[in-house]
Amino acid sequence: MASAAERLWPTNAPRWTGSNRSVNSMRRGDVVMVAAAGDDGKPRPAEVVQTDALPDSHASVIICQMSSELADAPDFRITIDAAPENGLRETSQVMADKPVTVRRERISTIIGRLNAAEMARVNTAIALVMGLAD
How far is CA 20 from the centre of its chain? Predict the structure, then answer.
């Protein structure tokens, strides 16, 4: 029987093929599959937002989860179109207003990566949400 992640992102779906890095070498901007607390274990895509300065051995990872339920909140919900490079199957939004820290083991795979323009929009949204733009 297929896992929840395989049902949401089937193995025959277009995938980012730019790297075969393991989740032990995640970098800021990677799109990963994660089962975060409060989601009933439902895997969903998320963007790694923590600095690359933290060691790969660090026990946790800061992410912003993504949702395909689009909200009209362009200042802190950054819309990302689905593309093979980011691994998304449908247009989704990075929820910059809901960063969370998860245990590294909760992340199952890297499915893609945001491009530089998308990352710049996410960075601006996080700065706004965290009060760093004040």
Answer: 17
- Classify 8 as helix, strand or coil: helix
Rounded Cα distance, 121 and 127, in Å = 10
Q: Where are the beta strands (DSSP E) in the chain?
A: 30-34, 44-48, 60-67, 77-80, 92-103, 107-113
For 59-112, what is each residue's pLDDT tens digit? 999 999 999 999 999 999 999 999 999 999 999 999 999 999 999 999 999 999
Cα(78)–Cα(19) distance, rounded to whole angstroms? 24
User: For residues 89 and 68, what is the distance between their CA atoms, to the nearest angstrom?
Assistant: 9
List the one residue out of 38, 32, 41 whose CA is nearest residue 86.
Answer: 32
| Dihedral of alpha carbons 9, 12, 14, 18, sign | positive
Contacts of 22 (CB under 8 A, 6+ apart): 110
CA distance 96 to 18: 25
